[in-house]
Amino acid sequence: MKRLVVGLSLLVLALALPLVALGDVTVGSGGGTPGTSLNFTLVGTNPLFSRGMNAALAVYDHYVYIGNRTDGSDTCGIGDPRRGVVPCPHPHPGILIADIADPTNPTVVGEIGSPYAGQVGITTRELRVWPQKKLLMVMTFRCSSVIHACPLGNDTTFPFDIKFFDLTDPVHPAFISSYVPTSVAGQQVKPHEMFLWVDPKNPDRALLWLSTPFSGTHSDNSARPQLMVVDISAVPSGGAAREVAEGNWNQFFPGSANQANYDFDLALHSMTPSFDGTRTYLAYLRGGFGVLDTSKVANDQVPAGTVESLNDNLLTPVPFPTWGTGPHCDGHTAAGCAAAGSAIRAYDRRGLRQLHDAVVRLALGLGSPLEHRSAAQTTHHRPIQAAPEHERLHAGARRKRVQLVLVAQPDRAEELDLRFLALRRRAGDRRLRPGQPGAGGLVLTHAAGGGGE
User: Fold this and answer.
1) What CA–CA distance (Å, rounded) separates 55 from 90?
2) Nearest to 420 by CA among 404, 444, 441
3) 72 and 114 Cβ atoms separated by less than 8 Å
4) Euclidean distance between CA atoms 307 and 286, whole angstroms
5) C-alpha torsion 395→396→398→399, nearest 10
6) pLDDT digits (tens, 9 = 90+) for 253-269
7) Mind listing the pLDDT tens digit for each residue in 316-357?
8) Bridge partners of 111?
9) 417, 133 in Cβ contact below 8 A?
């Protein structure tokens, strides 16, 4: 039975698997050229007022909630010829609500605006939904005057938080409360990305993994976290979010006291826990890729009223495996660098739980030594996709240069009928200006079964 995927979790692993380093990955034939895609059929679109800088989206029932990378000001972007001459209004800067019951005609039916969204200087960057509890969460923080066409400011003038909304009326979300991430030391720390994890053993328990990147001077202070884990189980009923764990691993990287060794950019960008929550995969800016033991957090073994330190829970020796130019990225070199944009995501769908670790190792060209349980730190450092390791992993597999797409569907359809929900924006365009219809909008496409790749 074919049906619309509305509780969609999508991972695009834009990882090629040739017998070379990841930095040598190139776009396949026709890649980036309109009209050359294969096995995808356009179902429906909506230009979203051509506002351009659309951010993360979240899905609940047949509604999509779409954040905004820019803000509610009329600031012109760097390089925009109108800058300093005329204002540049940002159209519909709030969180747009689109009805996708008819996938051929996604329709904007509402917008969450001020004072919760569409604020001056603040982006609604990340959105997640806990569907069983009808809970929408929105991460907000200061947006950039350089790449997001926002006014100059700081975290005091444009504060950060996570806002929670009740979706009982999905077209008119009701504000519940907000939470400002605060470390065990009492320091407010700005979040960057988040992962919503619902305990597979307890559907009433949910945790938010928050990356709180901090680089530069004093970033190796173990008391200032790069990662926080927050329990939001009580939020739907009006309770408070509470921190249960945090960690920082900058201090373990060689030479981290001098951040110039890492382009002043050594920080945790994003992370993803395994399905059971016992492993967390870390995407570390300039640091590479690592694995963290979070089994105590996942198994609800942190004593009430305490915050667990994860500083000593790394399963991957430091320095982490890196690729390309490693900790330096001078001018974003063609060889690539360990920028670690996003961690890998996989969900329990037809055995994906068991495949999760294997997919991580396969995608990065690593074998089982990605995790080490010995307390002694090793100096062994192996670049990702070293030829012997890669040949061992893929011997006889007859693999070509491919890209992998992992999709988890919440339905129980026996036939995989995948519909992809995605946002597009003008890549590389840092100016906010009126665009052609479809310049930045909501796109629903249908993925047909591909060949035997």
Assistant:
1) 14
2) 444
3) yes
4) 28
5) -30
6) 998 888 888 888 899 99
7) 999 888 776 677 776 555 555 655 555 545 444 333 433 344
8) 96
9) no
